[in-house]
Amino acid sequence: MYRVVLPEGVIECDDYEHVEHGLECYIDGTFAAFVPYENCYALVDEAVVDGDERSVW
Prior knowledge:
Elements: E1 2-6, E2 9-13, E3 15-19, E4 22-27, E5 30-36, E6 42-45
Antiparallel strand pairs: 1-2, 1-6, 3-4, 4-5
């Protein structure tokens, strides 16, 4: 599970792909959203974040 942090909130997705001008987010293999790099504050991999020690929130 990944979280894309935006100025307006958070998008949760299963997978993502870097494309020319941003990130394409996918849920269950289906395209869900495009996030331009300039609107992306952070990309968080939930498998790496340990417990409640999240510095992004």
